[in-house]
Design goal:
- This protein is mostly helical.
- The chain has one domain.
- Strands 1-2 form a two-stranded antiparallel ribbon.
- The longest helix has 34 residues.
- The radius of gyration is 20 Å and the shape is globular.
Length: 183
C-alpha cells in the first residue's frame, strides 16, 4: 500500500498554511471496471439533457469523479516531484502564488487558441494538434492547482455538469430566444 507524504505549504493568495499532498494513483482498477461494466444504454425519443443525465447513471458519475481525482493526484504529484514547489537553488519549499498559477492556466488556454487559429501541430508532440496539447497543459495545471489547494475539483465538476444539464437557460429553447445565450 502506498504511503502518503504530507507537506506544509504557505499559500500566498489565502495567507494561510495549507497541506499539500503529492499525487498518487488509487482506485484505477475500480474505475476501469466501472467503465467496462456500465455501458451507456441507447435512448431515443427523450429530451437529450434528460437522456444524458439518465444514461450516464450514478456509477458513471462515480467513475468520472474517480478518474478526475486520479488525474488531479497524478498531475500534482508529477509537479511536486519535478520540483515546481521547491526553490531550484536551495531545494526548500517555496511559497505558492495562486494568482501566478491561475495565470499560467490562462497562458495555456491562450496558446491553445493561437495553435487553433494557425492550425498548427504541436512542437513537442508533432503527431498531435497544438490546440489539443495546449488544452492538455491547461488541464494538467488545473489539476496541479487543485492538488495544491486541496479542492474537491472532481466533485465540483460532477455537480456542475449535473446542474448545467438541468439549467433552463442552457436549454435549446432558452438559448434560441431573443435574450438567450449565444455561446
Amino acid at each position: 500500500m502506498a504511503t502518503e507524504k504530507t507537506v506544509e505549504l504557505k499559500i500566498k493568495a489565502t495567507r494561510k498554511n495549507h497541506v499539500c499532498r503529492p499525487g498518487f494513483a488509487f482506485g484505477i482498477a475500480s474505475f476501469v471496471e466501472t467503465a467496462k461494466t456500465s455501458p451507456l444504454p441507447e435512448v431515443s425519443g427523450v429530451d437529450p439533457r434528460t437522456a444524458f443525465m439518465n444514461a450516464f447513471g450514478e456509477s458513471r458519475w462515480q467513475a468520472l469523479r474517480d478518474g478526475l481525482s486520479i488525474g488531479c493526484h497524478a498531475a500534482h504529484g508529477a509537479s511536486f516531484a519535478a520540483g515546481w514547489y521547491h526553490d531550484p537553488n536551495t531545494g526548500a519549499l517555496r511559497e505558492v502564488n495562486v494568482g501566478e498559477k491561475l495565470m499560467l492556466i490562462v497562458s495555456e488556454v491562450s496558446e491553445a487558441m493561437e495553435a487553433h487559429r494557425k492550425d498548427k501541430m504541436d512542437d513537442h508532440l508533432p503527431h498531435r494538434p497544438g490546440a489539443e496539447v495546449e488544452l492538455a497543459d491547461a488541464i494538467i495545471r488545473i489539476f496541479d492547482l487543485r492538488g495544491c489547494m486541496g479542492l474537491d475539483l472532481a466533485g465540483a465538476v460532477v455537480e456542475k455538469m449535473e446542474y448545467n444539464a438541468r439549467r433552463a437557460d442552457h436549454s435549446k429553447t432558452a438559448r434560441a430566444s431573443s435574450d438567450g445565450k449565444a455561446y
